[in-house]
Write a structure and sequence with these properties.
The protein is α/β, with parallel strands linked by helices. The protein is 35% helix and 16% strand. Strand 5, helix 5 and strand 6 form a beta-alpha-beta unit.
Length: 258
């Protein structure tokens, strides 16, 4: 446990890499020949190409804050976060660059249990919390080297407690963040009330990879492709959307309360 000290000189630069990010990016997450590689899914390919076009943009990373009405047992909350991460392989991906024009692929690395760092802002200057939020919202993940998610246990300036989550879009979306908040809260409440942990109902992302692979070889895909590649789509004209450039949003974070 440590208190945060986000002084102005620190906040004027990028966040330092967390120690566990550096360690996992080293020996803990090295790709081995025997590791099974999977293709990127269509949504992942779109996000990957967008990050290549805008390498200096922070748009792929969102920050969400989860606050609880009652005081939090951080040991149990940390355990709930670890259980969630062990259950969900979709966040535990590692992108593997292709050689000589080969396509980028991904593998799923085993979960390594960690102790989550606690940031304490209660009673501090609101400006410190705002500086931290701005840094976290604008952080950069190296999609080939870093763990693509991050959590902090939090005591907020108003005294409420909970956790923060920062995730790269290539391994998450809005539903993922809601899933994290709901499932972690469910596990935490089970442990607080000393009852059996609720069953995990989430699917493996590998199942979605397999589903998409099967769909691309199906008759249904051939039919769908012929339809969308057809030039005779005048009846859908009113539904067409013009391409829109993704831009940074300085207010790109959300808060969930339980």
């Amino acid at each position: 446990i440590k208190e945060c000290d986000w002084s102005s000189d620190v906040c004027s630069s990028d966040l330092p890499r967390r120690p566990y990010l550096a360690s996992l990016s080293g020996g803990g997450m090295n790709i081995k020949k025997e590791d099974k590689l999977f293709p990127l899914t269509h949504p992942q390919k779109r996000i990957f190409l967008q990050t290549r076009r805008e390498p200096d943009s922070s748009w792929p990373v969102d920050l969400y804050l989860v606050k609880y009405a009652d005081p939090v047992d951080f040991e149990l909350l940390s355990r709930a976060l670890n259980i969630y991460m062990d259950e969900n392989d979709g966040l535990r991906i590692r992108l593997v660059p292709g050689d000589r024009g080969q396509v980028v692929k991904q593998c799923f690395f085993p979960y390594i249990e960690r102790k989550w760092e606690w940031l304490y802002f209660s009673g501090s200057d609101e400006g410190e919390f705002e500086r931290w939020k701005n840094l976290e919202k604008n952080r950069r993940f190296d999609i080939f080297k870093d763990v693509l998610y991050d959590f902090y246990l939090m005591t907020f300036p108003d005294g409420k407690q909970g956790f923060s989550m920062s995730m790269h879009h290539i391994c998450s979306d809005g539903f993922t963040r809601i899933s994290v908040a709901n499932r972690v809260t469910e596990l935490y409440r089970d442990m607080v009330q000393d009852r059996a942990l609720s069953a995990n109902t989430s699917a493996s992302y590998r199942d979605f990879v397999a589903y998409e692979k099967a769909y691309l070889k199906s008759v249904e895909f051939v039919r769908d492709r012929e339809f969308w590649m057809s030039e005779n789509l005048h009846e859908l004209e009113e539904y067409r959307l013009a391409p829109k450039k993704v831009t940074d949003n300085s207010d790109r974070y959300g808060t969930m309360r339980y």
